[in-house]
Amino acid sequence: MRSLDPLIEEARALADGQPVSSPSAHSAEGEVARVLQICNACRYCEGFCAVFPAMTRRLEFHRADVHYLANLCHNCGACLHACQYAPPHEFQVNVPRAMAEVRGRTYAEYAWPAPLGRLYQRNGLTLSVALAAALALFLILAVALRGSLAGTPAGSFYDIFPHHLLVGLFAPVFGFAALALAMGLRRFWRDVTPVTSGQPVSAPASAEAAGHVLTLTYLDGGHGEGCHNEDDAWTLARRRLHHLTFYGFLLCFAATGVGTLAHYLLGWAAPYPLASLPKLLGVAGGVSLLIGTTGLGWLNLRRHPLHGAPAQRPMDRGFIALLFLTSASGLALWLAAGSAALPLWLCLHLGCVMALFATLPYGKFAHGIYRTAALLRHAVEKRQPNPVGLGAD
Ligand code: SF4
Ligand code: SF4
Q1: CA 306 – CA 101 distance, rounded (Å)
Q2: Per the UniProt record, which residue ranges are transmembrane (predicted)?
Q3: 330: closest CA among 365, 291, 282, 296?
């Protein structure tokens, strides 16, 4: 463990805008290591989230440790507002920002294929919206050329796009997203497993991690009253809106799955009546997703500037925008049933869904996967004896 003196010198130099000689200061991972060495001497935030107990099991923070801890952080902001060494203090301790910088880099570093990760990291919002618009336009042109864009359709989506054509369009996109996510997860898991005891996953650890994922435990600020957004006031809004978005997405996914089973097993063709399981799941999921993403977008615009990594904002906003557009166009498609606008809304909705799945492996959704993996490794690691023995889990 480095002594505090060089760390203080380094922090002073950084605060004064001076060049620093330590190699740790030259990378986002180095900045996390620097602030966590200070935290490890302080430990005031020990009860806030999983990051701090995991930190106390380490005296040094190597690259894989930092990647693991950065994805364990929920960016709740609590440790920034509680910290006596936060800016403008000369130590310049800003754990949420340091973690966010590294997290953004891990999405690109573990992405498969890597060039797509880097492209999305730099241009998330533009790429998301442009891809959705381009795909929707492509579908609109295809329908227009067949002469079926205007006029009341026969009532079935498959009069506009034959079912086999939809399967042919979407199966490769879904398959690619699943493969890319699996490859990214495999890389992350192989990297962080050795530094988190290397022990295999047990059933109790899995159950604990699943509970933390499903309830977003660490967005409670460590005391149950919520986390921070634009200021030092606690708010449960972030946690609730994340839940609306997460469960809305799952309901929409379930609606698609049930609809697929209904098609193949029962011969039912979409669109379905309101009093049917696929429609009820889809409408509930779409409304939940619409409210969740609208709220998260609003909170993102008002977020405290010190909480996150400015370079990551396009990626965050790109993912929120695509989820919003997917839910809004899906609900509009439902309301347009039987009208002349149905083909247009169908093209717009399909374009959004395809763009969403094509970009899933490279942004916030991938982070959900890495965070789940980090929580699982934490649940495994905390069941092992503390190799340092100075702190308590
Ligand atoms: S964030 Fe600040 S207060 Fe919290 S443990 Fe680190 S140095 Fe201490
Ligand atoms: S920002 Fe919140 S989740 Fe992240 S390390 Fe600080 S207290 Fe933990």
Answers
A1: 12
A2: 125-145, 165-185, 244-268, 280-299, 319-337, 343-362
A3: 282
Look at residues 32, 26, 24, 11 and name the one whose alpha carbon lies nearest to residue 98: 32
Joined tokens for residue 112: 């498969």
Give the span between the Cα atoms of 274 and 338, in whole angstroms: 13
Q: What separation in Å is there between the alpha carbon of 81 and the centre of ligand 1?
A: 10
In this prediction, residue 196 carries a pLDDT of 97
Distance 55 CA to ligand 2 centre (A): 12
Are 83 and 154 contacting, i.e. CB atoms less than 8 angstroms apart? no
Reduced 3-state DSSP string for 172-183 = HHHHHHHHHHHH
Q: Which residues pair with 227 in a beta bridge?
A: 235
Ligand 1, residues at Cβ distance < 6 Å: 38-39, 42-45, 79, 82-85, 93, 95
Nearest to 349 by CA among 205, 157, 191: 157
Give 218-227 pLDDT, tens digit per residue: 998 888 899 9
Torsion angle in degrees (nearest 10) through CA of 32, 33, 36, 38: -120
Name which of 161, 165, 22, 29 is nearest 101 in CA terms: 29
* Inter-CA distances, 346 with 59, 67, 156, 177, 379, Å: 55, 41, 11, 22, 44
Sign (positive or negative) of CA dihedral 197, 200, 203, 206: positive
Query: How much is the pLDDT for 213?
Result: 96
253: tokens are: 């996914």
Over residues 171-191, the pLDDT tens digits come to: 888 888 899 899 999 999 999
Give the C-alpha separation, 228 to 230, whole Å: 7
> What integer best gives the mean pLDDT of the chain?
86
**Cα gap 229→98, rounded to integer Å:** 17
| Best residue among 56, 80, 84, 92 to mutate for probing ligand 1, ranked by most atoms within 8 Å of CB | 84
Count Cβ atoms below 10 Å from residue 66 Cβ, excluding itself: 26
Q: In the chain, what is the straight-line distance between the N-terminal and C-terminal CA atoms, in Å?
A: 20
pLDDT at 23: 38
**b/e string for 90-101 if b means 16 or more Cβ within 10 A?**
ebbbbbbbbbbb
Stretches in the chain below the pLDDT threshold 70: 1-26, 116-128, 130, 145-156, 389-393
Pairwise CA distance, residues 169 & 257, whole Å: 17
Instruction: Please give the helix or strand (H or E) that residue 150 lies within, else none.
Output: none
